[in-house]
Design a protein that fits this description.
The protein starts with a helix and ends with a helix. A hairpin with a 2-residue loop joins strand 7 and strand 8. 43% of the residues lie in helices and 16% in strands.
Amino acid sequence: METVCIKELALKIKQNINKVIVGKDEIIDLSLIALITSGHILLEDVPGMGKTVLAKTLAKSLSCSFKRVQFTPDLLPSDLTGINYYNQKSCEFQFRPGPIFSDILLADEINRATPRTQSSLLECMEERQVTIDGETRSLGKTFMVIATQNPVETHGTFPLPEAQLDRFLFKVSMGYPSNEEGFEILKRFIGSNPIENIEPVASFDDILAAQKSYSSVHVSDDILNYILEIVEKTRSHPDIVLGASPRASQALLKASQVYAIFKGRSYVIPDDVKYLVNPVLGHRLILRNSIIGRNNGNIKNVLDQIVSGTPVPTEDNILKGS
């Protein structure tokens, strides 16, 4: 698939989502980048902000299987992965697959489940497989987790561990709508729920083709070094106790390639990287001040300092070999 076709595909899906979601173009773009890069996305905000609606609308825009799981403190790992049960009719054990065997899994309020249940997602998110009773089973090629979570200050939440957070390509917040957006939301939902009328606009094969083709976007050596320098500075910054991992640098690279396509280019420029630094790296860092912890505002300020203090590659070297 040509890069221009990937851009057209993303635009078609975005227009479909905009029939339901009002004024969240940036969040939709990041969701589509996660889809094309085979990544996962974590939507964090207070209840009622449209996190679940966005996830369901994205899933309904695609011709692929979709399962939703409401995470609660009593949810067990087997409720996600499935179980081997004894079939008395056939007198043998059979496997009953759980909701994790789908193309898109909506993990609703993921941080309301216990760490034991959260950990059942680690293998499937990274390796797209799950091991049950010693047997490894493969998941779909387009397997994607769209997780929603309430802020950690909300009652009844279990913070996600670093290993879990590092498996999400992005962590983003929906944010409150403006007055104009709130008015449009009320008008749009006054009669019926518009999500009921959403039809698929992209096939399974379209998504697979896009996932295989986006890596053709040119990335110069200078851009690679630019990404590495930003990531390495998170590991040595005096205010950061846990810096970004090699998985984070790969995520920033892949996301920048797709974002360049969205901007109509076949090569990555520094502005692509700068735009994605916070949603890619922000949730992977822990600040040294334990009182501040993972405060998004303070982490953003630290990342802004790192980016502003990192030399930007010149245009000639960026285009070389493109």
